[in-house]
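Quick log. Single chain, no ligands specified.
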Amino acid sequence: MVGSLPVNKYLKDSGVKLVNEFTRLDGKKKSYKVKIEEIDEELEKIKEAVIKYAGNIGVEVVIGSDHKLKITSNEKIKMPGQGTKERESLIALLSQLNRWEEVSALDIAELKKVIIEEKWDAIILDEIKKFIEIETVKSVRLSKSKRED
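-> predicted structure:
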């Protein structure tokens, strides 16, 4: 059974009240973000220390009072960045080996940019637009008002 959605308690508020409450909550959110960043910095320091500690005593698990930390090690593959000569050389090699089609992918962000900026002929864009859906998205941005006294 699907329950009814809760009523939006702000729908009857005045514009001033809505902006003031939005501002209050936005400020609260920003203060939490700062606190989270501070906590993340401390966690990174602790991670560094526990990795060193575990390495020094030759273990992969460090046990605390009620919890444990498991240290794992993985290899991460890093590819040449977009627009670099190394990237161009890699693409050329893959093309030469007839493997480029297997690993190339549609760049959605770039295609959106082409459509928005109308970089291609209208005929081509019209064909592409048959596959896309355009949605209007409304946003709310908070800024300081300039009042004259």
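Strands lie at 61-63, 68-70.
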